[in-house]
Amino acid sequence: MAACQKLTITKPDDWHLHLRDYQFLASVLPDTAKRFARAIIMPNLKDPVTTTQLAGEYRERIISALPSELQKSFDPLMTLYLTNRTKASEIVKAAESGFVHAVKWYPAGATTNSEKGVSDIVACYDVLEAMQQTEVPLLVHGEVTDPNVDIFDREKIFIDQFLTNIIKNFPDLKVVFEHITTEQAVSLVESTSSNVGATITAHHMLMNRNALFQNGIRPHHYCLPVLKREIHRKALIKAATSGNKKFFLGTDSAPHTQLTKENACGCAGIYTAHGGIEFYAEIFDKAGVLDKLEAFSSFHGPDFYGLRRNKDKITLSRRRHKIADAFPFGDETCIPFRAGENLEWSID
User: Which of 166, 175, 280, 347 gives the lowest tally of CB atoms within 10 Å of its CB?
Assistant: First the structure.
């Protein structure tokens, strides 16, 4: 049978995206808006988005940064940054806003701009109860931050120490286990109620941890959660391509300047928005299940969040093209995933 050369699907959504702010925002936003109808916007700016008012102001900056031809075709879905000081009353405001769609739990110190995150989740139980009552989902960066725990085990330990208790104590709370990286995370999501879902990135399905050390240290392959063993990469692909509606697309595209990635203490994050849907097409194509890409990228996410499915369509073609070596990022540059290499699929 001849390989599929064109694939038309319902326009997808990105359920986990970092856009940064101001001039950096304007540089990367078009890559996402050309490919996705909506995106869940992460709140971990340098000054975190902790209130509904701040989320509204950030949303306006995003809309203002959109090219005119994309302003009516892209909808930023905002989130709040959970802290030890978040009040249950703020959750009610968020639920009533119409534009805040979730609250993000960063364990303090777990990743970029997470220093103001949660140091004691039990102290936030009143907030989680308010979220359960108002049906506001909890988005979870699932890693422990104990320096004595091996970095490759931090997701598994987080499941054992924290996430299973949250799911048990708040059975009606919608939980999205973000950017899962292990077979243990896949198993947890598969075995729990329909209130628990997960996003899966393309880069965690395209690389294992060997990619961090090919011919030396590869800072542009460093992300958090860190890449894992091959057995885990295969488990992610199996979950994403299974048709299970609990798994959906979240790029976790995270732009940084070249300087902050390439230094003595480089930061975590991989920029993938330039191939936000194309990388997934490659994965599903290699797995022989291109027919399941639409559900994973366009149906499972909105169904979980209780939002309508998009009506517009996009067409992908099997047409190889070279990725740029670098992209403008404010007044600096950002090195994209697979810089200087090829993308096998293109958007018509």
Answer: 347
CA–CA distances in Å: residue 256 to residues 151, 260, 262, 317 = 21, 7, 10, 29
Residue 2 has a pLDDT of 67
- Alpha carbon distance 42, 40 (integer Å): 6
- Starting at the edge strand found earlier in the chain, the sheet holding 196-200 runs 14-17, 38-41, 75-81, 100-105, 138-140, 175-177, 196-200, 247-249
Distances 6 to 121, 195, 293, 347 between C-alpha atoms, Å: 47, 34, 13, 10
pTM for the full predicted model: 0.97
Q: What is the DSSP string of 306-323?
A: T-PPP--EEEEE---EEP
Within the chain, which residues score under 50 in pLDDT?
A: none
Q: For residue 184, how many C-alpha atoms fall within 13 Å in the half-sphere facing its CB?
A: 15
Residue 324: count of CB within 10 angstroms of its CB: 12
Annotated catalytic residue: which of 252, 285, 303, 331? Answer: 252
Residue type, 254: A
Distance CA(160)–CA(154), nearest Å, equals 10
Report whether 303 contacts 10 (CB < 8 A): no
3-state helix vs strand vs coil in the chain, percent to 5: 40, 15, 45
CA 97 to chain centre: 22
Is 120 marked active-site?
A: no
For residues 158 and 156, give the distance between their C-alpha atoms in angstroms, rounded to a whole number: 5
